[in-house]
Amino acid sequence: MRAHTGVGDLYLNNKRFQGVGNIGSISGIKQQSGDSPTRLTLGLSSFDDSVRGEALRAKYHGRPVTVWLVALNEQHQPMATQVIWKGSIVDAKVSVGESNRIEVVVSNRLEDWDKKRPDRFNDESQQVRHSGDRIFRYVSVMAEWPIYWGSDKQATRLRDSL
Fold first, then answer.
1. How many CB atoms lie within 10 A of CB 26?
2. What pLDDT was estimated at residue 132?
3. Residues whose CB falls within 8 Å of the CB of residue 79, separated by 6 or more in sequence, listed in order
4. Where exactly are the structural domains of the chain?
5. Of 9, 39, 70, 159, which shows the fewest CB atoms inside 10 Å?
6. How far, in whole angstroms, is CA 136 from its chain's centroid?
7. What is the gyration radius of the CA atoms in the chain, in angstroms?
8. What is the mean pLDDT for each group of 10 consecutive residues in the chain (162 residues)?
9. How far apart are CA 10 and CA 142, in angstroms?
10. CB burial string 27-52: b at 16+ within 10 A, e below
C-alpha cells in the first residue's frame, strides 16, 4: 500500500500514493544517534468491515516500509523528496469498538542485529545447505592461523586433508 497524509492521489516516481487525510496517522520519528533500534506506529481509523477483514488475513510481517518527506509546490506537485525512515513491519493489530483502528508497528533494520542467525559461515553449515560444496573447509584452520604480512616466514600450504 502507498499512502500519504493529504487527500487525493499523489504520484512519486511513477507510483500512485492514495491520500488518507485525517483517518491516517504516523507516530513521531525521533532523531537518534548510535545503534538503538527505533519503532514507528502507522494507523488507519474509521474503516468498513471489508478493510478490517483484509487486514486480519494479510501476511504483513517482514514487509518493507519506507517513509518519505515530500515538499510540494503551490499546485500540490512534488518538488523534492527525501527518505527519512526505512524498516519492516514487526506487528499489527486491529481494534474494533469505539475506535475502529488498524495499527501497524514497524522497526528499523537495527532491530535485526539483535536476532540470532540459524547458521554460520563454516563447513558444517554449508554442508547442510549445499551438500558437497566445500568452500568453507579451511575457515576453522584460518581463524587460528598467524599471518605474517610481506614475509615468507610461514608459507605453509593448506591441504585438503585438514
1. 14
2. 93
3. 71, 72, 73
4. 3-114, 116-162
5. 159
6. 29
7. 25
8. 86 89 84 71 78 76 88 89 88 80 84 71 88 89 76 60 49
9. 55
10. eeeeeeeeeeeeebebbbeeeeeeeb
Instruction: Indicate the burial class of 107 (C-beta count within 10 angstroms; 0-12, 13-18, 19 or more).
Output: middle
Looking up cell 610481506, which residue turns up? 150
Secondary structure of 28-45 as H, E, C letters? CCCCCCCCCCCEEEEEEE
Which H or E element spans position 128?
helix 123-129
Contact between residue 89 and residue 58 where contact means Cβ atoms under 8 Å apart: no
128 Cβ partners below 8 Å, 6+ apart? 119
Grid coordinates 535485526 are at which residue? 112
Quote the pLDDT of residue 113.
67
Cell for 126? Answer: 554449508
